[in-house]
Automatic annotation (TrEMBL):
NCBIfam families: SLAP_DUP (TIGR04398)
Protein name as it appears in the record: SLAP domain-containing protein
Database matches in InterPro entries: SLAP_dom (IPR030910)
Length: 281
């Protein structure tokens, strides 16, 4: 679709959850008024627009709105910005980590402040009425997806569900299309067996089947404790879902009261028992 045929996107104020709870309604009205005065954006665009640039003495504080004209949620990592004058001459350039901007929904306008360090200015000062901010190059927004557990046991205590969901929500953001395996816990039961619990996340748009999972456990000194390839009987995980899996290594580990398992590591590959220390460094 040509640029001239793309429709304009109406963007609305989008705040991170914690700010949405603490910002007053009056402040939200001010932000919404600022958004209403921004130039329109079109479908498929990700836009940044500056509201003010203020010299704090230590840096140049620039308030911006990052607007999402895509039809999906987006997130950012390292993004380069330029400050330009009306002749498109560069006044300043700096790259910012925008992870704290958070997930910007489709049609969302997220307020944020960028602090340009004085060392990155190419002029003595930023003119009050002659500046604008742009991406240094076409921004590559990363799409992330949210997942929920499927097939949790009906008799699982609510407190256990809460712990599992806290773990899920604190994992690193899941990119669209990615499939991840993360260790939830390692333990040793009274029989001396090593117990490993993991969480599998499916960030793709189709269900996946898992036939087998290799799991290796080492201690904090990289000494091999257990390794096995577990048959999963074609475990199926739906799109944007997560599954909890438990593994038992029949062992005879003598559980020392002072044994700390927090430094033990889990790898999702079969161990080379003849060269374990070199493999897992």
């Amino acid at each position: 679709m040509s640029n001239s045929k793309r429709r304009e996107v109406k963007t609305e104020l989008s705040l991170l959850g914690k700010y949405n709870d603490i910002i007053s309604d009056v402040h939200k009205q001010v932000l919404e008024e600022e958004i209403s005065q921004l130039p329109p954006i079109k479908e498929g665009e990700v836009s940044v627009h500056g509201v003010y640039a203020y010299d704090t003495g230590e840096y140049i504080e620039v308030k911006v709105y990052i607007r999402n004209g895509l039809n999906k949620n987006i997130n950012f990592t390292e993004v380069p910005f330029l400050l330009l004058n009306n002749k498109n001459e560069v006044l300043a350039r700096e790259t910012f980590n925008l992870e704290k901007v958070g997930l910007v929904p489709a049609g969302g306008a997220r307020p944020y402040k960028l602090n340009f360090h004085k060392d990155n200015l190419l002029v003595d000062k930023i003119p009050i009425d002659d500046w604008k901010i742009t991406f240094d190059k076409e921004v590559q927004a990363t799409t992330y997806v949210s997942v929920e557990y499927e097939n949790l046991p009906e008799n699982m205590p609510e407190e256990s569900k809460k712990v599992y969901y806290e773990f899920l929500n604190n994992l690193s953001p899941l990119k669209q299309g990615d499939i991840t395996l993360d260790r939830f816990s390692i333990g040793i039961n009274k029989e001396g067996n090593i117990l490993v619990t993991i969480v599998i996340r499916n960030g793709s748009n189709k269900h996946i089947s898992v036939e087998e999972i290799p799991v290796t456990v080492t201690d904090k000194n990289n000494i091999l404790m257990a390794s096995n390839v577990f048959k999963m009987d074609n475990l199926s995980i739906l799109p944007c879902k997560a599954r909890i899996c438990h593994f038992v290594f029949p062992m005879d580990v003598k559980l020392d009261r002072d044994m700390d398992l927090s430094d033990w590591k889990v790898y999702f590959e079969a161990a080379n028992k003849n060269n374990t220390e070199n493999i897992y460094k």
